[in-house]
Design goal:
Helix content: 40-55%
Strand order of the largest sheet: 3-2-1-4-5-6-7
CATH superfamily of the largest domain: Glycogen Phosphorylase B
Radius of gyration: 22 Å
Structural class: alpha/beta
Shape: globular
CATH topology of the largest domain: Rossmann fold
Largest sheet: 7 strands, parallel
Number of helices: 14
Order of helices and strands: EHEHEHHEEHHEHEEHEEHEHEHEHHH
Low-confidence stretches: 385-397
Mean pLDDT: 87
Strand content: 5-15%
């Protein structure tokens, strides 16, 4: 199998990096012979990637990130609207990152490795699938629903960022695949209806790392997030609407915040410690009694929630944070409908060691069952589900 990704696996500073890492780790477990072709659009620790997966299993494609493939009329329109301030955000074409140089590099990789299956990360790289013959199984790992993605952020009062497209463009990309991998069931239903392609839900597979709560010290809450707009909004809202009340009732409690989001938070209020980027999260989880994810906007599956559960930590989140994990809501973790609800659940857990212990046990049970189901779904997506290339051609004719 050839996995083509514009997202590195090291350092693991964001959820999408953890996703790609977990997929490769699951492929190892399934006994799949894989090769990772990494397109170097992001800062990465190449040596760590090669050490983890094997130097012969990692190829680097050094091509510039470009959006010049979009239609000229669309580029002129979008630039004019941005200049005039008449449009806050605009959808991109699904092939906007395509370039002749990148096409040649992917073709070269294909000739060298002659894969039975090709998996690309994100629908905006779906054009790469067209470079492989019909005999190769073609799979897209979607990560997110990108049609009108910007509108969901604007509705939540969060500035949109990164990639967003139209339903028609997303359909164009999805139909290039023999099988589509969705990260949560709600998005799977949407992709199936939009594209007519076989869709398999493959959530994030987490390594079990049960971590007991600290035996001594102050009650400690933990939040981990990369520096994107959704995480910035989550922590800004938390520090304004959730943490002040918790700190008043528990003056000795502390909130640890880690990850790139710390760069955007300024001077923290009393009781809040900004840890920034850390080499390992294990120490943070070992110090935490409760993990929170107060997200108010976002798409996809919140991998930070699954990571918290895989450490056996009591988790409090919002409906946005619980998307795709609804079967565990109220049992393996707690969901507050708004900031006040998140605060109430946090207070309950801060005051009840027994309740925290019960949630920790249920979290581990949930993750064990979750991992089994995701591994089976991944195997189905890569090995048994989907039409052959000839079948797809026949259907479209």
């Amino acid at each position: 199998m050839l996995l083509i990704s514009t997202v590195p696996t090291h350092p693991m500073t964001a959820g999408n990096r953890a996703r790609v890492y977990a997929l490769l780790e699951a492929l190892e477990t399934l006994g799949v012979d894989f090769h990772l072709a990494y397109i170097t659009w992001e800062d990465a620790d190449i040596k760590a990637m090669q050490a983890r997966w094997g130097e012969s299993r990692v190829s680097l494609i050094a091509q510039k990130l470009t959006q010049n493939y979009s239609a000229l009329w669309r580029r002129i329109r979008n630039r004019s609207l941005r200049t005039l301030g008449w449009e806050r955000f605009h959808p991109s074409e699904v092939d906007c990152y395509r370039s002749p140089g990148l096409e040649c590099a992917i073709l070269d990789i294909g000739r060298i490795f002659r894969p039975d299956c090709v998996l690309v990360e994100y629908v905006f790289n779906s054009w790469m699938l067209e470079l492989f013959p019909a005999s190769v199984r073609k799979v897209i790992d979607t990560h997110d629903k990108f049609a009108n993605r910007y509108a969901q952020f604007l509705k939540a009062g969060v500035a949109p960022e990164w990639f967003s497209t139209t339903p028609g463009q997303e359909r164009k990309g999805l139909r290039r695949a023999d099988c589509v991998m969705a990260i949560q069931q709600g998005e799977a239903d949407y992709f199936q209806q939009l594209s007519g392609r076989p869709v398999v839900t493959v959530g994030h597979v987490c390594r079990l790392r049960p971590t007991p709560e600290p035996a001594a010290g102050p009650i400690t809450l933990l939040y981990i997030g990369s520096n994107n707009h959704a995480n910035q909004d989550a922590m800004t809202g938390c520090l304004q609407e959730i943490w002040p009340g918790l700190h008043r009732q528990h003056p000795t409690a502390r909130l640890l915040v880690a990850g790139g989001v710390c760069e955007s938070l300024g001077q923290p209020p009393p009781g809040v410690e900004l840890r920034g980027q850390v080499a390992s999260l294990d120490g943070l989880y070992a110090a935490a009694h409760i993990v929170i994810n107060p997200m108010r906007a976002g798409t996809g599956l919140k991998i930070k929630c699954l990571e918290a559960l895989s450490h056996g930590k009591p988790l409090v989140t919002t409906p946005v944070g619980a998307a795709g994990l609804e079967t565990g809501a109220g049992d393996a973790f707690l969901v507050g409908p708004d900031s006040a609800g998140v605060a109430r659940h946090c207070l309950e857990l801060m005051q009840s060691p027994a309740r925290r212990s019960d949630l920790a046990t249920r979290a581990m049970e949930f993750i064990k069952d979750w991992n089994c189901r995701q591994a089976a779904a991944l195997q189905a997506a890569l090995l048994t589900v989907g039409m052959s290339g000839k079948g797809k051609e026949h259907e479209e004719s």
